[in-house]
Amino acid sequence: MFSVVKNILLLVLLLGASGCVHSQNDSIKEIEAREGNLNDSWIFGQLSTYEYLSASIGLAHAKSVIHFRKHKALLTRYPKWVPSLHPRTDTKLRERVLEAYGKGRLNDIEYESLMKQLTVLLEQWGAQRRTLMKERFNLRYPR
Asked: Is the pLDDT score of 4 beyond 50?
């Protein structure tokens, strides 16, 4: 009786642990797949430039949250700061928005809306960075 219960508990723990790891990988893969589908839809003219850029910013936000969660321990405890593990996601998107606005693919209202979304994305990155700096300070690592 005890060995049956022990085996069931072990099975539940293994399935739960593998499910957690699997879901994290799926979420990054899902976001990357959505980015690919989004890019294809925009290229084939199924989406306007505004819709494409707005959705890209939303996906960058989700991807940033997942990457931060994934690399937080490494970034906090690594003795030297590694900016490539926590890059700013808004810079390339900001360039795309400016390029589209310069070419006339976005009107003023759409441009302002996208710039506000990018500001929120930058603020999120800044909050993550501050969290890392506080934790690194507590561990007496250089900022």
From this structure: no
Q: What is the residue whose two structure tokens read 């293994």? A: 14
Conformational region of residue 87, where left means phi above 0, alpha means psi within -120 to 50, and beta covers everything else: beta
pTM higher than the cut 0.70: yes
Query: How far apart, in whole angstroms, are the C-alpha atoms of residue 125 and residue 131?
Result: 10
Give per-residue burial for 19-53: e unless 16+ CB within 10 Å, then b: eeeeeeeebeeebeebeeebeeebeeeebebbebb
Mean predicted confidence (pLDDT) in 32-50: 91
CA distance 33 to 137: 37
Residue 100 near residue 49 (C-beta atoms within 8 A): yes
Q: Give the closest residue to 132 by CA, choosing from 121, 120, 142.
A: 142
Distance from chain centroid for Cα 5 = 40
Q: How many CB atoms lie within 10 A of CB 60?
A: 21
Token pair in block for residue 51: 């819709």
Q: What secondary structure letter does DSSP report for 47?
A: S
> Which H or E run includes 24?
helix 2-43
